[in-house]
Amino acid sequence: MSDVAISNAIGYFIKHHRLAQNKTQDEVARDAGISRSTLSLLERGGTVTVATLLQVLRELDLLYVMDAFKIQKQISPIELARIDLRKRQRARSQKNDQQFESDW
Hints:
It is a single chain. This protein is mainly α. It contains five helices and no strands. It has helices at residues 3-20, 25-32, 36-43, 50-59, 77-86.
């Protein structure tokens, strides 16, 4: 996707959820601490700062979309194989601490 297409998709997403929550641009902008014209620009796919986008997402309870940016620690297959090799392979029987002497 081009930058313009991504900006338009973000704007449509914001507008859709704002209308689904039955909020006006004035309400969202006021509660997010931005101007109505900035919110309008965002909804039309215009260029806004990341901070502005986050303020609007927070106001609309949409910060869950930021979960896509979380890095999940993954174990490589080689490291997983090493961990498996370190696991116990056999159980030992329980013997007394006494040494058995042979008659031989």
